[in-house]
TrEMBL record:
Species: Acrobeloides nanus
Major localisation: membrane
Subcellular location: Membrane
Protein's UniProt keywords contain Mitochondrion: no
Protein name as it appears in the record: Uncharacterized protein
One Pfam family, short name: Zip
C-alpha cells in the first residue's frame, strides 16, 4: 500500500510538470494542440475508468435502486458535458487582438489596422 501511495505522490506532480512544459513549449501549434488533446484525453479516460469500473461497480453490486442509480449517473454525465459545451459559447470575446489572448483580466484592446 505504501508503494502505491508513493508512486501516486510522484506521478501527480510529474503529470503537472509535463502538462506545463508542453503548454509553454515553443513548437508547431498544430502539434502542440494535438499533444495537449492526447494528454487531456488520457486524463479524462483515467477519471472515467476509475468512476465507472472502480467506484460505480462497487455501488452497483449493492442491488438497491439500480435504475435510479443509472439515471443519476447518466444525468450527471449529461450535466457535465452540457457545462463544458456551453462554456465555449458563453465566454466573452471582447479582445480582437490576435497577439494578446483573452483572459478574464485582459483589458479590452480593439484591433486596428494601423
Amino acid at each position: 500500500m505504501f508503494a502505491f501511495v508513493a508512486i501516486l505522490a510522484l506521478i501527480t506532480p510529474a503529470g503537472a510538470i509535463v502538462g506545463y512544459v508542453v503548454e509553454e513549449a515553443k513548437f508547431d501549434k498544430v502539434a502542440k494542440y494535438l499533444l495537449m488533446t492526447i494528454l487531456h484525453s488520457l486524463s479524462i479516460a483515467m477519471f472515467l475508468f476509475l468512476a465507472i469500473f472502480e467506484i460505480i461497480a462497487e455501488e452497483r453490486a449493492n442491488k438497491h435502486a439500480s435504475l435510479l442509480q443509472w439515471i443519476a449517473y447518466t444525468a450527471g454525465f449529461i450535466v457535465i458535458a452540457a457545462i463544458l459545451v456551453a462554456k465555449d459559447f458563453t465566454l466573452p470575446h471582447y479582445n480582437k487582438n490576435p497577439y494578446m489572448p483573452y483572459t478574464p483580466y485582459t483589458p479590452y484592446t480593439p484591433y486596428t489596422l494601423d
